Amino acid sequence: MRYRAVISYFGKNYVGWQRQLNGLSVQEVLEKALTAVFGTPTQATASGRTDAGVHADGQVVHFDADTSIPPEKIPFAVNTELPDDVSMLSCEPVADTFNARFSAKRKTYCYKLYVSRHRKPMLGETRAHIVVPLDVAAMRECAGIIEGEHDFRCFEASGSVVVNTVRTVYRVQIDAAGTFLPDGRLSDGNVEIYVTGNGFLYNMVRIIAGTLVYVGTGKMTADDVREVLATGDRTRAGKTLPPQGLTLVSVEYDDADGTL
What we know:
Elements: E1 2-9, H1 26-38, E2 45-46, E3 55-64, H2 74-79, E4 86-94, E5 106-115, E6 128-130, H3 136-146, E7 148-151, E8 166-180, E9 186-197, H4 204-216, H5 222-231, E10 246-252
Parallel strand pairs: 3-10, 5-6
Antiparallel strand pairs: 1-3, 1-4, 2-3, 5-9, 5-10, 7-8, 8-9
Helix pairs in contact: 3-4, 3-5
């Protein structure tokens, strides 16, 4: 029988979701746990890769297993075999046609950062540190420019072999809380950038976040963002922000797509 499960993990100690030769992956530790629980080698397919150091609250995987364990009990059994920084949150049977990767319709990522004149060690492993105040209103204006269907090659890191770089971004939402200056800039506090799309290029969300930070610090304007999208010039966009600020929040599927 095929199962769909939701996995959460803290990415600091892993080379990413996918098995790699140069270090430990989340896929490796999950498949090891599944194999131990079911007593036979078990492979897991995820909705997509997450890079080294990136976290997940709602990574979706599918796997096949012949087991008498009730689906709602499988997470309890699997979690006894997993390290503390990886957890199975839910599990349900699905049709054999369900594929965690190819059946996915949209994904939501969140890039988290904090604004402070000085480092805050308790936040450093889950948020990027921005030293100067941010113009959140300007960032929100440019978030709207990024929404829609575009050729996002300007927000793709080098090294990708993807041919079609057209994607649809359904939403870019910026939440901010903390201390604001009289001119409206955030001088101390937290910012969360939520990006929902039908798919993402290599480092795309981290570059979108870096571009919006450039806007927030005055290094780029709304017209600059429009020009970056129009030209596809990666060198004109913001920098790629560090991986620890990025979390895969959720993956969405059609209601009729595979659930038994």
